[in-house]
Amino acid sequence: MIKLFFKTAIYHLRKDLFHSFLNIGGLSLGLVAFLYIATYTFHEISYDSFHSKADRIYRCVAHVKMGETAQNIPRSEIPLAAAAKNDFPEVEEAVRLYPLSEIITRYKEKKFVESEICYADAELFDVFDFKLLEGDHKTALLEPNSIILEKEVALKYFGDENPMGKSILLHSEKDPYVVTGILDKIPKNSNLQSNIYASFCTLQESKRMDSWGNFGNTYTYIVTKKGTNIEEFEVKFDASIRKYEDAMIQKEMGISLAEFESQGNLFIHKLQPLKDIHLNSTYAEELSTYGNKRFLFIFGITGIIILIIACFNFVNLTTSRASLRAKEIGVKKIIGSPRKSIIFQILIETFIQCLIALLLSILILLLILPFLNQFSGIIILPEYLLNPLTLITIIFIPLIITILAGSYPAFIITAFKPVDVLKRKFKEGNSKSLTRGGLVTLQFVVFIALVFCTLIIRRQINYLHSQNPGFEKENVLVVKNMGYLGNNRNSFKMELLKNPSVLSASYSSTLPSVDDNSGNIFCEQGSDKTHLMNRMQVDGDFQKTLGVQLKDGRFFSENVASEKDNAIINEAAARLLGWSDCTDKYIHDYNYEQDFKVVGIMKDFHMKSMRDETLPLVLKCSDASSFLSISVRSDNLPGMIKSLKLNWENFNKEAPFEYFFLDQSFNAQYKSEDRLVKVIGVFTLFAIMIACIGLLGLVSYAAIQKQKEIGIRKVNGAKISEILTMLNRDFVKWVVVAFVVAVPVSYYAMSKWLEGFAYRTSLSWWIFALAGLLALGIALLTVSFQSWKAATKNPVESLRYE
């Protein structure tokens, strides 16, 4: 019996290849889009869930507010880990991580620059389920100058040699690090992606066990014991840590923590669940690139919507053709076929179509995955399809669609009496049905909304790129790792300035778009009102090189020694302090415990992207910094870069020459928006194709249903234009209704999205109009082809047997 059902299903597929192609093709496109999005989404939400203690691991973070400036800090003080283990019975284990980047390592004659290196406590493997292929996880990081290498890193250093017990050198340290373990490859869905771990006790900073209040570069993770009420424990955790902060505040500022907070300040320690870090992080200076929850939400909604319209399309085409099988069903019932058997046959046929569409979509996705990855910037590997949630989705999709699409022909038509079916005394599904029109309308609501959103996102990105960030970012080349030059910094800079392609050069501790954790507490001289401000060290050529503007006062001179007690603030800091000028103004730096004379107020420039307002900033004068910004001519960049590299190698043989362009680095901050518009653009195209396939099938069906009416109208003198109007009228009406529904939905969605930007474009009426006209034009082009064929057909062919 089952074999017969399958044979019948294949027969019906082959009998009407055109509509079978439309049905399966439209559903396949929808499934390609949905599986791509679902695979990425399930991968993102699976981050760090592979750790056996993942539900009990928390990162210690801090929320700090000084005056009007608030900051979320993912780092913690060095002694916090020890305090957590000693003071709280709820804490099972704790580990500290101290990441570094761009570290030069050596083994014999081999030299590398490592960007994924991290110092860690010996408890690393008691907290996280990273696997050691060689070495003892209890002792591998216990002793100073111990190091663990990921297996591919070990192969890079030692080749076929056994790396255990071998020694390598890190940056400028003289004492070698002994390899005490080989680490297995870390899963892609881990936020901790360091491939080299060195013992934390090696760091000089690890000996500063009483440095409360110093949020250097240390990240602390704790494991709570089973059964711990985390809400209650978090309150207890913060309250207990406050005693250490109170002692620190009294030592540094001469006031109690309560007095400090009574001035409008805030100092709270919190616990962030490990599995929340990737998608729910609102912190700067993360250990790795974290996900974007808002992007993932939009991405996921888009995938669901694409699947829904593909299913609508499939249901529409399936049900519209169901009435054509009414006679077949009637005859089967008359000759004795039970209703259950007919229902099962129809569901089997629908399931086979869904299964073919699913298999075809997986094949298409695997073929186009490299191109989608390259275009969108979202990296999805084929093995991500093996994610358990993805596999469950793949299994259930054909079943769900079968139930939705097969229910009408299977349960409704088979319920009619055979005589009524043969005499056609039942309500046929056709293109005029309210349900079918509603489904097509919803398809075009999605289509118009996606087009509108794509246009708005692109317009916002263009708007951000076109805004003046307050500094000159074009033709500025930045050389990294200047610390390796030591006392040769100034000599190197003077040598560069001899190059005619170099206009100016300036040292700085950080730059716009470069992550930095140099925030510090400041106050006006003589005031006890503190403020949290960013801090930056620059030399006297910074203004000339980056083109920042002064509002009041002067900039630093080239004589660094004469400027060591001076500072420059930006407009945001001046507003915070209530200053209109810098005459006789001093600012106190709690880090240096010193008053600095403010000699200038700069106009605001953006250190971060223009999603947010400019933050308060204090500039100090120094030429001992990590970055050298070089303003260059653009006429011969390759030759100029080659010359700079030769100069670098003349002054430094250890570190490689590494550089980037400031405009590219600054624009890269909008990568998530660029990625979003590309992805939505791709799936808007999918939505258009699916909607067109659906319209093509429906207008074809409508033409078949009305072929005799068309023939009679033509015999009676109806023009082709009148026939076209009759066939296209309903489709145009559906698009117009879809436009009316899509406008407020799209407007609300994009208004909420734009609220995330401090600087944003406007929602112009012409964008709505363009999206609506595009939808109408595509709909008319799609239906007019089939309508024209029906309208120009010889009426004799339609009326021959009447």
From TrEMBL:
Membrane topology label: Multi-pass membrane protein
Domain ABC3 transporter permease C-terminal: 302-414, 682-795
Domain MacB-like periplasmic core: 20-235, 466-606
GO MF assignments: transmembrane transporter activity
Domain of life, per lineage: Bacteria
Residues spanning the membrane: 21-42, 295-315, 342-369, 389-416, 437-457, 679-704, 731-751, 763-783
UniProt entry tagged with the keyword Acyltransferase: no
Name of the featured protein: FtsX-like permease family protein
Lineage: Bacteria, Pseudomonadati, Bacteroidota, Bacteroidia, Marinilabiliales
